[in-house]
Amino acid sequence: MEISKSDMRAYILDKFTKEGDFEFMVQHLPAALDAMMELDEAYTTGIGDGVYDDDDAYDAMFTAMQQRFPDYKIYCMRLCEDYLDFAEEYLVSIDAIEWE
């Protein structure tokens, strides 16, 4: 199944906006989202066994986001957690996830 990155981005950005927890960084949220999507894709591409591990993906994303967005370092934990939840919700909504 082909996943539309632009549709996924729009879905996740809408979820962040409606959630309202990151209004203080609204001007940087699109760039942060793009970075998280890029990091998530790099993680997914790099897994050898093809099994996506949320904990490993989170750890890699959290570390990289703290480096990329040092002004928001304290918020990166929640930002990454929410991103992974919203990404999963999107993938479920389009039937792109197969549960083992």
Quick tags:
globular; 100 residues; mainly alpha
Give the count of helical stretches. Answer: 4
Low-confidence stretches: none
| String of helices and strands | HHHH
Radius of gyration: 13 Å
Beta-strand segment tally: 0
Beta-strand residue percentage: under 5%
Largest beta-sheet characterization: none
Taking the alpha carbons of the first and last residues, their distance comes to: 17 Å
Overall pLDDT metric: 92
Helix content: 55-70%
Structural class: mainly alpha
- Choose one word for the global shape: globular
Explain what the structure shows:
The protein is mostly helical. Helices cover 66% and strands 0% of the residues. The chain has 4 helices and no strands. Helix 2 packs across helix 3 and helix 3 crosses helix 4. The longest helix has 18 residues, at 29-46. The chain is globular, with a radius of gyration of 13 Å.
List the helices and strands and how they pair.
Blueprint: H1 5-19, H2 29-46, H3 54-68, H4 76-93
Helix pairs in contact: 1-4, 2-3, 3-4
Structure summary:
The chain has helices spanning 5-19, 29-46, 54-68, 76-93. By secondary structure, it is mainly α.
